[in-house]
Amino acid sequence: MKKIQYLSIFIVLLCSSFKNIYLSKKELQQQYQSNTFKSAILCLDKDSNKVWIGNYSYNYAIVHLNNSKKKRSIHLGEKFRIENDTLKGMVYQDPPMIPQKANVAMSDIDFIEIITATKPIPYYNLDSAQQAVVFKNDSISKAFMATGHNKWILVSKQHPSDSIMIFEQACYDLEFADGTKTQKGVVRKLTTDSIYISSAFNPEAAAFERQVYSELAYHKKDLAIISILKKGGWDTKKLDAVTYDLYPETDNSNSPSHFYKLHGETGTIRLYRYWFTQVGFVKIFEEGGKIYW
User: Fold this and answer.
1) 170 near 281, Cβ under 8 Å?
2) Domain spans of the chain, in order of start
């Protein structure tokens, strides 16, 4: 089975690889001063523009040696590192694509060419992006604690041990007495008797589903159905709101129901929210109108 997997990787790289991406020995040494694993490696494309390359084992480095036409191939990934002035990693010999250790003295290296099956990502400043995420999340936490927040607890009349928690800024699939439905709608505000919720995660998600985005306000007595994604993710379960007793409370938790996270491979800062399902709360985000979790 492993031989088939390695052969598949080799075929993918031959058929759909991005080439003309380079890494100098100096840049390699700077990035690998510590032995910590890096999810991406900073390289240069053919126009000398900085790009990020995913540090995956199906990408590999062609090591060009000093004063020679000789080359060595070493796959990227967790095994790719500098240790005792030696570049180390794995190479898959074909046939039969059996992984073997590869070692090249740093003093013998001229430069490195990267062959990757994943599209290079334009350069972004990783430190600045991480600082931006920290700032955004700190702002959310401060606002969350300063303004106060509420929650609704719905307790089953037949099975009091079963309950549903509705939090502000979390996402829910709800249906109201007039037939209006929300699809991963964001709870904007809760009071003792009313709920304020958006019709979708955001306007982009609504547009993707060809729906009109709107902000809704309903009395608690208008809540009719709570739909939850079943375990396995293929179907939904509808819970009748009249079979639950609703108890408004003040939420004393210190954890907001939304936060920002940096996607390290692209530099994209994404807004995540918690979405209520049968298995509990799942983190979701929107990209291109689609919702992912």
Assistant:
1) yes
2) 2-122, 126-292
